[in-house]
Specification:
Methane Monooxygenase Hydroxylase, Chain G, domain 1; 2 domains; mainly alpha
């Protein structure tokens, strides 16, 4: 049977175990919630931020490429470099966070490499196209300038021809049938063919594979070749030096043929470069879109992880609430059971002991009354000890009672002896009074004798002093 101390100890132990269980449940729940929040605020947050930076880096590169294609090379280079660095740092952050699967990271790395490669190819093609297009425009302008020089010379020859002929007004000089007139007409037609060809080129930039535009461009090229050949074969220009401009050291026919061949070749090269540029730009857009799609997929993955962690945190919270509530309910039930047990096994026996003691204390002092002893717990020990104490008190009281009776008998004897002694003391007191009176009278006589002796002593002292004084006088007289 458990004693009171063990019962109380078990109660405290149970409460401690219950508190430990509640604390453990709360700790586990808080750790799971903390772990979920740590993943959300740590790797997940880092991944989401890195994805956002990566998207901004790609967009910044695309803006830089658009600026470069539009002619803003210096600003474009800075934007492309900044965007490339931002995207690279973002990828490193995503890789460091460790949330995205390795396979998906490899795909993103491959697409980033393709994106950078296509971007470089696009910029190189753009620079190449700008160079070829500028060469083509330069050739067109040089052709126009040379045609203008030829036209000026032919026109001046026509003017000189009419001036030298001295033909009267209204008469024909035959100049329209001359070679110079044919040259002037050919230069005009050549310029028109040249401008038509330039117009065809610009039309083909939008639809480079349009068969009608390609045929029109071939026709304008054929016209230009015809007019250039007509000019180059004219006697006025063939073998004659240009004398000025970039073709000053060449003859007209050689310069014209060179410009016509350059126009044809540069037209094709510039147009083909532009076609390649458009294709590369389209490829660049596709690669960029694919890269952005992967970035969005990574973002979706991280958002899924966030949702999963939030769900786990919510589940942990619900589980913790349920577990703690269950433990609290169990604790309340067990506490009530412990309360009833304490009432039955501790409080009730104590009340019985207290009531029995009050009966003993409030009665006539019956020391023969005893407490009930049931069991081996502390309350039974108290009852047993009280009974033993009562036995000892009863024995002591009995002994004291016997001693009091003996003391009473002794007191009676001492009372008789005291009365006898009192009579003797009275007689002794009377005799003592007489002795005291005689003693007082004797004391008075002794006092008188003492006074007389004191007077004699004083007289002797004066006599001795006077004797000494007389001796002194005699001694003084003798000297």
């Amino acid at each position: 049977m458990l004693n009171v101390g063990k019962r109380i100890g078990l109660g405290y132990l149970f409460m401690a175990a219950l508190l430990a269980a509640i604390g453990t449940a709360g700790l586990l729940a808080s750790e799971r919630i903390s772990d979920a929040l740590g993943r959300i605020t740590g790797p997940v947050d880092s991944t989401v931020g890195a994805v956002d930076k990566g998207i901004r880096g790609v967009l910044l590169q695309m803006i830089g490429v658009d600026a470069a294609l539009g002619g803003g090379a210096e600003k474009a280079d800075a934007q492309i470099a900044s965007g490339s660095e931002l995207a690279a740092n973002a990828f490193q952050s995503i890789e460091k966070a460790g949330l995205v699967p390795v396979g998906q990271l490899d795909r993103v790395r491959t697409k980033m490499t393709d994106f950078n490669r296509v971007r470089h190819a696009l910029l190189e093609l753009h620079n190449s196209y700008v160079t070829h297009y500028q060469d083509f425009l330069t050739t067109v302008q040089q052709t126009k300038d040379l045609l203008l020089v030829i036209e000026e010379q032919a026109s001046q020859a026509l003017v000189n021809m009419e001036w030298n002929a001295g033909i009267a007004e209204g008469e024909s000089s035959g100049a329209r049938n001359s070679e110079e007139w044919a040259i002037v007409s050919a230069t005009s037609d050549a310029r028109l063919a040249l401008m038509t060809r330039l117009f065809d080129y610009r039309q083909l930039l939008d639809v480079p594979e349009d068969p009608e535009l390609l045929q029109t461009a071939e026709i304008s090229l054929g016209d230009l070749k015809v007019y250039i050949a007509q000019l180059a074969d004219s006697e006025s220009l063939r073998g004659k030096p240009v004398g000025r401009g970039p073709f000053a050291s060449q003859t007209f026919d050689a310069a014209l043929n060179q410009l016509a061949a350059a126009n044809e070749a540069q037209f094709q090269v510039a147009l083909q470069t532009h076609v390649d540029l458009r294709r590369t730009r389209q490829r660049y857009g596709e690669v960029a879109d694919a890269l952005m799609e992967d970035a969005r997929q990574i973002e979706d993955v991280t958002r899924g992880i966030v949702a999963e962690q939030l769900s786990a945190a919510s589940d942990s919270r619900s589980s913790a609430i349920w577990l703690v509530s269950s433990l609290i309910l169990i604790g309340l039930v067990m506490a009530f059971a412990a309360y009833l047990t304490s009432i039955r096994t501790i409080a009730a026996p104590l009340r019985r002991v207290a009531g029995r003691m009050r009966e003993i204390a409030s009665g006539d002092g019956d020391l023969t009354a005893r407490l009930d002893v049931n069991g081996t717990d502390e309350i039974s020990d108290v009852s047993r000890s009280f009974n033993e104490f009562a036995d000892k008190i009863h024995e002591t009281v009995s002994r004291v009672s016997d001693a009091i009776r003996q003391l009473s008998l002794s007191s009676d004897q001492m009372d008789a002896m005291t009365n006898a002694n009192l009579d003797r003391s009275s007689r002794q007191q009377a005799e003592t009074a007489q002795i005291a009176t005689a003693t007082q009278e004797m004391s008075h006589t002794v006092s008188n004798v003492a006074d007389s002796a004191q007077g004699a002593l004083e007289s002797a002292t004066r006599a001795h002093s006077e004797a000494n004084s007389g001796q002194s006088i005699i001694e003084g007289t003798l000297r």
